[in-house]
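Final paragraph of the annual report: two paired records, presented back to back.
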Amino acid sequence: MVFLPVGSYAQNAVGVFRAIRGIRSTTRITRVAEVRINNFWVARDALASHRNYTNFDFTNTSSRIQLQVEQRILAEQLKSPTTFYGPYNYMRAVSSVSRDQKLVNPRYASAWKHLRQTEGYNGAHHLVMTSVIERIHADLKASGHKVSLSDLKNNAPCIFHPFHGRPEYQHIFHNLEEQYTIYSEHGMRALIVHQLELINDINIQIGLEPMPDWYIDGILKETKLWCDHFGLVYDNWVPMEGIK
């Protein structure tokens, strides 16, 4: 068994395990989320929202709890990249596993290959721009909250999208001032919903399927976990006018 460290952070530790027995091999992505005991249900809802996990377990002390999920990937099991979401370190693990062509369904091989062509982000797209996360981190620091910037970025909610990085969609994926304003005035939930609506519009325009409800719901649950863990504002709802 070989352990390939992808990232080990306060909220999520993610690893890829490969076991080889003769000509057969098994690949597992294991994710361990460690949270405060009062965040158990938020963490459970976020991790359990994924449809591709095959194992779920947890252990706890009086103050902290560890939730562990495991995804076993067999031959030709990886389907569309657009069915995956989660923290950045988990999405990087999925992207790294997709390099093994034996594990990718041939129907989606070109989609995975396209995502990996941009090495700078390894296929995983932060729904909240990293520069926006840096601003939010500065705000947290100024208010006395001690939060690791690298932890904040590596646990931020991400998706895969084939057009991330293309210049003609820069205004959608890299709208720094708009993102920061929405978060400051309305909270992270409103920002994520806004970004998903913009991306959904792209999907419809180019003939892709719109995001299903279960996918959007899962992303919001991951966002809630991220916010609660690091002290970000999740929902400060007031009507949003003139923002599209």
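The closing record of the year follows.
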Amino acid sequence: MELIRDIDEHTVECLLTCGHWSTSFSNRSSHFDFPDEAHDCPICGVERQWDVRLQAACYAEIFRN
């Protein structure tokens, strides 16, 4: 399952825990430094975290470096 999808060369969307995609943002965003932050779901209209598999992958990358 895809957890991050490219919108264009510099923009991505991330899968949220509700199963919807986040709003788009830069692929170099500081969002990736704080993977457990809540994001507004454009479909549900409430705050959701990224899918836990994506959070785990981000933390693995953060602690690897």
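Residues 18 and 36 are 14 Å apart (CA to CA). This concludes the annual technical report; the extension proposal builds directly on these records.
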